[in-house]
Description:
Elements: H1 3-24, E1 39-41, H2 44-53, E2 59-63, E3 84-85, H3 89-94, E4 99-102, H4 108-117, E5 121-123, H5 130-143, H6 147-166, E6 176-181, E7 184-186, H7 191-198, E8 202-203, H8 204-207, E9 213-215, H9 218-224, E10 228-232, H10 239-245, H11 253-256, E11 260-263, H12 265-269, H13 275-287
Parallel strand pairs: 1-2, 1-4, 2-3, 4-5, 6-8, 6-10, 10-11
Antiparallel strand pairs: 6-7, 7-9
Helix pairs in contact: 5-6, 6-13, 7-13
Amino acid sequence: MSCGTRRSDRLLLTALAALWLAGCAAGGVPQAPARPERICSVSLAGDELLALLVPVERVVCVSALADDPETSNVAGFYPPAIPRLSANIEPVIASRPDLVVAAPWNEGGFLRLLARSGIPSLVLDEVRDFDGLRALVVRLGERLGEPERARAVVADLDRRLEALRSRRPEPGARPRVLSLSHSVVAGAGTTVDALIRAAGGRNAAAEAGVTGHRKLSVERILAIDPDVLLLGFDPGGSPDAALASTPALASMRAVREGRVVVLPPRLLTTVSPHLIEGAERLAAALGSGRVARHGGIER
C-alpha cells in the first residue's frame, strides 16, 4: 500500500468518524452491544441470514442485491424504507449501525476501512458445506444476541438433512450430477458439491478431479459425461435457450436422454440455510422420475 493511499484512508476515516459521531451524538457512540439493534448487512449472504435470525426492525440497511429475484432468497422481504447499499463505507457509516455484517468477498478496500473505522463488525466465514453453514449460523446468532433462534435454524436444517439421508439411494445407485453455468462447473469444496451429495447424487466434476468453481472447455465437459445435468435459470429463463447457446451440449448423453434438472440460481449460489431447499428440490427430481427433457422440476 502506498503512502498516498494510507494518507487518503486516514483523511477519509477522519471525515467519516466526524460524520458518525455527529449522527450518534444523541444516543452515544455504539460500543459493540451484546444485542445490536441497528444492524447493517453489505452482502446478500448477510441479508438472508439476518432474515432468519433477527426481527426486521433491527436491520437498518441491506445489500444492493437483496431484491434481485434471480440471486436473492429474500427478494421483497425487507420493507422499501430500509436502504439498499453497496459495500461503500460512507453510506454504511451514515446509517449509524451498531453492527455491520460483511463478507470475505466484499471489496478489500471496504473491509480495510471498516476494520479501521471503529464500527463493530462481523465478517462472515466462508462456507463450503453444511457443517460450515451450521457453524456460521451459530456464530452469527451468538453475535446478534439470538442464540436460541440460531439453534432453531440449525435444528430445522439438521431435520431436513436427515430426511434427505433417509431417502438417499445406495452408493452404487447414486447418479453422477454435473452443475454447469456458462462453462463453469462446481467441483469439490463448494456449496453446490454439498447440495448434490445431500440430494443423493455424486458430484461428477469432483470425481473428475475438479476443485472449486472452474471454467472448462466444452471437450472436457463432454468427457465428464454426467448422468444428470444441473442448470441454474431464473423463473423466466429458458433452459432450451441456454442449451442452444452451446450447441455442443446437445451431444451430451444427459441432454440427449432428457436428464436435465433446472433450479433457480438463488438456490445454487446461496451460502445461507436456503441451500437445503436446493438439495430438496434436486432430490425430488432425482428420486421421483421427474427429470424430464430440458428441465423437469418446478421452478
